[in-house]
Amino acid sequence: MDMEELETFVQVADAEGISPAALRLGVSKSIVSRRLVRLEAELGVQLLARTTRGAALTEAGAIFRVYAARICNEIDEAKETILPAGDLRGRLRISMPQSFGSTHFAPVLAEMARRHPQLYIQSSYTDRRVDMITEGFDCAIRVGYLQDSNLIARRIGPIYGKLVASPEYIKAHGSPETPEELVTHQALMQGTEAWKLMDGNKIITVHPQGRFKADNGAALVAAAIAGLGIANLPNGLTDEYLNSGALVPIMTRYPLPPAGAYVIRPPGQHPARKVRVLTELLIEYFDQPPHIGGAAST
Questions:
Q1: Do residue 122 and residue 237 come from a single domain?
Q2: 231 three-class SS
Q3: pLDDT value at 86 more than 90
Q4: 264 phi and psi, to 5 degrees?
Q5: Positive or negative, the Cα torsion across 139, 82, 280, 257?
Q6: Is this model's pTM higher than 0.70 or not?
Q7: CA–CA separation, 105 vs 41, rounded Å?
Q8: Residue 272: per-residue pLDDT
Q9: 267 and 152, same structural domain?
Q10: Do 211 and 272 sit in the same domain of this protein?
């Protein structure tokens, strides 16, 4: 089975069309089409359904894409292993949070692409926790307190945050002063998460309640400004509104313990060099404040 045909199929599947895949690969559309025809003929099944809008995976194509992408990635890793001093090449598929990705992490990816012109970077911006193995991601950037999993994590920097609310909310409902008072207020949350607070060197866990939930940090900022409740957010999302007075910090006697930003990858003996290079670039970025989480100020 020809590796060019496998790579071409993966590119068409990910780009959802022959034309954009040809552009990524730097070849003509006719070459892409011929490679697909040969691959489908060898397998004896239809992998892609051609439409006026592009190309959609068939059921067989969706299954085969997982294996084809894995093979292509392993070949790329093998090339990197035997040529450790060479330029990065192949594809890097990464997931990152929508709340910060386009403003804080995208410049790092752009710099990586500039330094490595043979590397194809595909980034997905979502606050949803993707299934990295099933969905074929090389790595992901996650922000917050790391949960236990079988994934391998590398911390790239600290994330500082605080509890905030609008002056209107405080005027209407008061400002909680203790963790016990906090749980009686409306909390703006991503789900059913617990909040951690520091009482000196002791960490206290509280379980807030609220009627407004969103899986996006910017949406929680908007809800806090609208006076819907108290939010637990990174400084990078709230500094602008704290400076303008649209939000104010609360419960400063009980600061939030620093969270972190992490590069997460599927389990394996050795991380791909492209993931290692990205990780080092991100660590370098966090060493040049102001970074995503902002300073540890109150």
A1: no
A2: strand
A3: no
A4: -110, 140
A5: positive
A6: no
A7: 42
A8: 78
A9: yes
A10: no
